[in-house]
């Protein structure tokens, strides 16, 4: 739902949640432009998030995935900044590395475990 907020408000929300939870997981459509749905204006996507936007947050990991139709989205984990590195939950794209059993060629889990 973060794409429904102005970027400054979304960034504030992520930082607020980051201090209160060990992990915040986000799935954000990148280029799925939506102005309204069934006459509901609140369905508008008012901000576009990129990998660079996520990199500004301490303990954030993100990968960009593409659907078969060519639409992109971000899969993100923003770990609480008080966590030890070994407790960080990581998401990474392995499509160019090892082969994965996961359909989207994404690997996730805790760092160093």
Question: Can you describe what's shown?
Answer:
By secondary structure, this protein is an alpha+beta fold. The protein has one domain (2-110). Helix content is 17%, strand content 28%. The chain has a three-stranded antiparallel sheet. A two-stranded antiparallel sheet has the order 4-5. β2 (60-66) and β3 form a beta hairpin. The termini are far apart.
How do the helices and strands line up, and which of them pair or pack?
Layout: H1 7-20, E1 23-29, H2 51-55, E2 60-66, E3 72-79, E4 89-93, E5 106-110
Antiparallel strand pairs: 1-3, 2-3, 4-5
Supply the key terms.
two-stranded antiparallel ribbon, three-stranded antiparallel sheet, 28% strand, alpha+beta, 113 residues, 2 helices, flat
């Amino acid at each position: 739902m973060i794409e429904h907020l102005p970027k400054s408000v979304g960034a504030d929300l992520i930082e607020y949640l980051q201090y209160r939870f060990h992990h915040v997981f986000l799935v954000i459509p990148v280029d799925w432009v939506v102005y309204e749905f069934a006459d509901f204006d609140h369905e508008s996507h008012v901000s576009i998030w990129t990998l660079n936007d996520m990199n500004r947050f301490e303990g954030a990991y993100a990968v960009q995935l593409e659907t078969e139709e060519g639409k992109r989205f971000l899969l993100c984990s923003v770990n609480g900044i008080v966590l030890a590195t070994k407790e960080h939950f990581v998401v990474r794209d392995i499509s160019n590395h090892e082969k994965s059993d996961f359909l989207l060629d994404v690997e996730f889990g805790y760092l160093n475990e």
